[in-house]
Amino acid sequence: MPVRLHLHLLSDSTGETLENIAKAALAQYDDVETVRHFWPMVRTEAHLDRILQEIAQNPGLVIYTLVNAATRRALEQRCRSLGLPMVAPLDPVTDALSDLLGQQAKARPGRQHVLDAAYFARVDAIQFTIAHDDGIAWEEWEDADIVLAGVSRSSKTPTSIYLANRGYKVANIPIVVESPPPTTLYRLKNPLVVGLTTSADRLIQVRRNRLLSLNQAPETAYVDQEAVARELAFARRMFADNGWPVIDVTRRSIEETAAAIISLVNERRGEGSRDAE
Q: 147 partner at 20 to 30 Å CA-CA among 13, 163, 207, 241?
């Protein structure tokens, strides 16, 4: 039977960091039914008092990122009195940095969300990526950081959006046997062109699910085994002929594919090692 766990996430900012930490940790366990209680923007003891009442009624693990000393102390004291386990996951990193840098951390909630130049660059990247999805506005591809090429349903769009959230301007182009891409694709200098490929069986499965979601006929050339194999072979030849790096997304998550692409970009810039197939 699944283990039922109440998980309380308290943050004095948006709580995005906590959610990612909790998600990564929980992925290591099977048969856990998690009830998440999410408490962002906790910045006053009055707000904390209301939350503690809920925690007392649903005891479980408390994970927190609170920089205000008084609020943090009140939470820790109450958790101890209730006998609840608590974890401040950023403390070891902050302590290590303080030791290395010889200075105390600034107790500023949500400092990572300051509207700095990197934030606006990320917004620009997202806008660019949305405007250059699925082969649109190919005349502006030279302004991209990355161009993804691949057959239909090879994860180009979700990977592009993920990379955009990391600050990369991304365009993507579907490779279609009957409709060759614009010749601009072969003359690009600034962006890194990356080919995405996958296994025929996996691609057919994804395409069938797509057709079913659209209430369309599930048996078409779009999912025909031989036709799909020809599509993939055509794309692979194009990638090889142009010397583009290729990533097989068959067993990769979007995050893993994006990490491999970023590694390629860093290698091209002389900043890292290659991590792609």
A: 207
Q: How many CB atoms lie within 10 A of CB 141?
A: 22
Using an 8 Å Cβ cutoff, are 171 and 144 in contact? yes
Sign of CA dihedral 61, 40, 76, 101: positive
Question: Two tokens at 96?
Answer: 């290590």
**Per-position b or e across 236-261, b if 16+ CB within 10 A of its CB:** eebbeeeebbbbbbeebebeebbbbb
* Per-residue pLDDT tens digits for 206-245: 999 988 888 887 778 899 999 999 999 999 999 999 999 9
**Contact 195/244 with Cβ under 8 angstroms?**
yes
Q: For residues 272 and 257, what is the distance between their CA atoms, to the nearest angstrom?
A: 16
23: its two tokens: 């998600």
Give the number of C-alpha atoms closer than 13 A to the C-alpha of residue 241, restricted to the C-beta side. 8
* pTM across the whole model: 0.67
> Which ranges constitute the DSSP H helices of 156-224?
156-165, 200-213
Residues 165-186: tens digit of each pLDDT: 999 999 999 999 999 999 999 9
Calculate the alpha carbon distances from 252 to 122, 199, 258, 259, 276 in Å.
24, 12, 9, 10, 11
Radius of gyration of the chain (CA): 24
Q: What is the DSSP letter of 31?
A: S
115, 165 Cβ separation under 8 angstroms = no
